[in-house]
């Protein structure tokens, strides 16, 4: 079959990546979707078992820092669109090991930009390098205000500094070599297949297991939560309707303190697991705050709303209920990713 687009998705075996790959493979049978992923601790082919038989889907194991492999892939498949999601993505890990974030998020992104530039230079028609980034590049908000596309960069963790750097490189390649690019900066995602080092799946897992729920500081930091499938839809929208050279902020209009999120998870899980109301809240344990902990993130997503007609379809109440149901129905998935190396990570991070 002749495909009309050859899309290289990096990090497609990760949390957001698998939803993006699924959205594209199912919605566009005439596109070939290449899922390029190194399968680090965060990448898992179990996330994509339902797509294995699809003719328009292919997995390629590889590291975005491997320049010669990238060159071969661009040559062999005639890639014309890149959706770049591969990254080290967890702030706590960036605090203990910043260099691995520089390696993947900065060096890896520049390698990928080079591969795209070398392959496309001189003929940029129908080409696009789409970088999926985070709102954390903008730093931390006080009580008021929102991040927009105009907000100045002010990254404050090694993770956000590495993502900010990769955003800068993408724009620099656009300015210097004319590489057609687009960037979106999204708020915190939640939903199925998220690795349980991040707040929501970690809390669900610990409640199931009757383990303490670690709350950093006072639990009053605020995040703006977006259901991951809505993010995948937003990425599809930007890919098809976004203007080259533009940036889009994506968010869920769902600002919550961490304690609010944790209380919701405790109460809903008590109900769904048939436990007495209040039982899971007893697991809440206040622990030492994260170093340099950003206070509040919140996105003004009006540009993507008005220009590209994208809106989140789910509000937090509904999304969190679906998410809990998914983790309860997929206990095997949770158990498989929380054995082995996870136990070492957990012990190092939480000391119990
Ligand atoms: P994730 O950690 O779940 O997945 C990352 C994926 O990248 C994994 O499959 C991993 O194997 C792969 N990977 C890591 N290093 C690689 C390398 N060197 N070469 C090839 N593949 C490699 O991350 P996620 O939460 O799905 O985030 C995806 C992207 O979206 C990241 O760029 C992240 O910065 C961004 N983002 C995430 C969020 C969020 O809330 N999770 C919000 C906004 C933006
Ligand atoms: P996280 O899911 O790591 O996302 P990010 O730091 O990228 O926003 O954390 C979300 C919030 O939850 C953040 O304010 C830190 C807090 N948190 C805890 O209180 N305890 C935990 O064990 C974790 C992992 C996070």
Structure, explained:
This protein is α/β, with parallel strands linked by helices. It has a domain at 5-191 and 228-253 and 297-315: Rossmann fold (3-Layer(aba) Sandwich). It has twelve helices and 13 strands. It has helices at 15-27, 67-77, 91-96, 98-120, 158-177, 199-209, 228-241, 258-273, 302-308, 316-329, 331-337, 341-350; strands at residues 5-10, 31-37, 57-61, 81-84, 128-134, 181-186, 189-190, 213-216, 222-224, 226-227, 247-250, 255-257, 284-287. A seven-stranded parallel sheet has the order 3-2-1-4-5-6-11, sandwiched between helices. Strands 7-10 form a two-stranded parallel sheet. Helix 1 links the parallel strand 1 (5-10) and strand 2. Helix 1 packs across helix 7 (228-241), helix 2 runs parallel beside helix 4 and helix 4 runs parallel beside helix 5. The longest helix is centred in the N-terminal third of the chain and has 23 residues, at 98-120. It is globular and about 65 Å long.
Name of the CATH superfamily of the domain at 5-191 and 228-253 and 297-315: NAD(P)-binding Rossmann-like Domain
CATH topology of the domain at 5-191 and 228-253 and 297-315: Rossmann fold
**Oligomeric grouping of the chains:** single chain
- Mean pLDDT across all residues, rounded? 97
- Number of discrete helical segments: 12
User: Given the C-alpha coordinates, what overall shape results?
Assistant: globular
Strand content: 15-25%
| Major sheet details | 7 strands, parallel
Question: Which range best describes the helical content: under 10%, 10-25%, 25-40%, 40-55%, 55-70% or over 70%?
Answer: 40-55%
Sheet with the most strands: spatial strand order? 3-2-1-4-5-6-11
